[in-house]
Amino acid sequence: MNFVTTLIESVLFSAIFCGIYWVVGFFCKSTFRIEIRSDRGYTIAIISGIVFKIILVKILENQY
Fold first, then answer.
1. Which end of the chain, N or C, is more open, meaning fewer C-beta atoms within 10 Å of its C-beta?
2. Distance between alpha carbon 11 and the CA centroid of its chain, in Å?
3. Alpha-carbon distance 53 to 31, whole Å?
4. What is the DSSP code string of the chain?
5. Taking the CA atoms of the chain, what radius of gyration do you get in angstroms?
């Protein structure tokens, strides 16, 4: 059960990071006419969400 919870939390953090990336990309596209959204960017957003979740948990548990 713990693995499933961790997996769901990681997916949620990744989805939040992808959403933020999409909003920032939409703002740049509509304001500056520059497209920053790409497959590589979404991959980085997913990995960043997973890493941020791990770091946040360790900080809140006073391990850092």
1. N
2. 9
3. 31
4. -HHHHHHHHHHHHHHHHHHHHHHHHHHHHHHH------HHHHHHHHHHHHHHHHHHHHHHTT--
5. 14
Residue whose token pair is 């969400």: 49
Q: Are 53 and 13 contacting, i.e. CB atoms less than 8 angstroms apart?
A: yes
- What separation in angstroms does the CA of 10 have from each of 14, 34, 61? 6, 30, 17
**pTM for the full predicted model:** 0.85
pLDDT per position as a tens digit, 2-56: 999 989 999 999 999 999 999 999 999 999 999 999 999 999 999 999 999 999 9
CA angle 9–19–60, rounded 5-degree value: 40
